[in-house]
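[Meeting: bench + compute handoff]

Bench side (C.D.) handed over the final construct sequence. Compute side (W.E.) agreed to return the predicted structure before the next meeting so the bench team could plan truncations. Sequence as handed over:
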Amino acid sequence: ALKNENCYLLVAPSNGINVWCASSSGEMNTHSIITVIKTSRINERVSHRLMILPQFSATRVDRGLLKQSSGWSSVWGPAYAKDIPSFLASGNKKTQEQSVAKYPLGFRLEMLLSLNFLMWALAGVILLIINPRLLLFASVLFWGVGVILYGGYNILPGNSGWLKAFFLSMLMVVIIALFSFFALGVSPWFYWGWMVTALAVSMSQGLDVKGSVGGNTSEPEHLFYKLGIKSFGHLFSSDGVRNGVVKQDMHRCNGCQTCIFVCPKGVFGFSGGQNEIAPINQEECFACNACVTQCPQNALSIG
């Protein structure tokens, strides 16, 4: 995206995690930015003091502290790197559309592969040892369930990823039972082992599907938060989980539009007059806290 641009790219430490997750968990924060400013010696390479921050780091980066500690001012860039050239060409301005996170089919299938490949590979090795003939059928079942669950996430019934996975598993159980009875002439429960397998595969893949492809709080992390469990090894942490939805103090809001351009879900918009900004898509809010952290008037809170 930056190939033809006249700029420097500073790579801040994030412990190998993507910007959004690293910022939410605290791996990438204001001090990460300050560190890379110092270690890159960027002050010796440019005469200005303005940097473009990745929008998804808005959950944790304090621009005021960054300015105070490093002397660098900052603006929020677009959600995706592909939009940086047009952002620069427009004088560091972006549209609300360029601020919104997107979850198209291609992305959801990419997440399916990256999150479940290791699980499939480990199960495949076990099946090769126990009964190699089952590997092909089990693989078709595993990836078939994944494609339906991840690819059809938006159309499967239920607001919960766990509920979607359970619905899919029950549907498969019914299909196996009907096929056994009408096509094979055996008891509907003859292949109960495959029913249990279908249930296990579906529920395991649906464990965190909502947080992975739905743009919502991770359900396992939310459960841990409710139970008071801080973390589960390196797999989950409930430290960044927040409950509730965004609330606005209209008396404090000055219409600066910061919330519009840091919200990844398009929650904010103009209500009434053109200077009145409000959370008009409240159902999209999943309490990522970016707007609360960045509001210069402290007009927003999570309640």
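W.E. noted at the follow-up: The mean pLDDT is 91. C.D. will use this when planning the next construct.
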